[in-house]
Amino acid sequence: MSDYIDIAPEVAEALAAGKPVVALESTIISHGMPYPQNLETAQAVEQDVRDNGAVPATIAVIGGRCKIGLSPEELEYFAKGSEILKLSRRDIPYCIAKKRDG
């Protein structure tokens, strides 16, 4: 499974400790708003999650790898991306196989 999935250290530590983790979808970042509003919104939502005692885990595919929790650099990369696919369940295998972003 680790051949395709990267769990951010902060998320992995929270899960191991039984702390709350909130999954956040990434479509609003890549397709919902223009840059830099998309990045600012994503950062604000992640901060709201932290302020309420949980760990945010923004979900995305970057370079064909499923990311569970994004680093600040990955979040910015995703926010600035111009060729990010909008994914549904049926598109995920294609995105992974072609090493795309989505």
Low-confidence regions: none
Strand count: 4
Strand composition percent? 15-25%
| Radius of gyration, CA atoms, in whole angstroms | 13 Å
Q: Biggest sheet, in brief?
A: 4 strands, mixed
Question: Strand order of the main beta sheet, please?
Answer: 1-4-3-2
C-alpha end-to-end distance: 19 Å
Task: Give a description of the structure.
The protein contains 5 helices and 4 strands. By secondary structure, the chain is α/β, with parallel strands linked by helices. A 4-stranded mixed sheet has the order 1-4-3-2. The longest helix has 15 residues. It starts with a strand and ends in a 5-residue tail after the last helix. The mean pLDDT is 96.
Secondary structure topology:
Elements: E1 5-7, H1 9-16, E2 21-25, H2 27-32, H3 37-51, E3 55-62, E4 65-68, H4 72-80, H5 92-97
Parallel strand pairs: 1-4, 2-3
Antiparallel strand pairs: 3-4
Helix pairs in contact: 3-4
Précis, in short:
The chain is α/β, with parallel strands linked by helices and 102 residues long. It has five helices and four strands; from the N terminus they run βαβααββαα. The longest helix is centred in the middle third of the chain and has 15 residues.
Which keywords apply here?
102 residues, alpha/beta, four-stranded mixed sheet
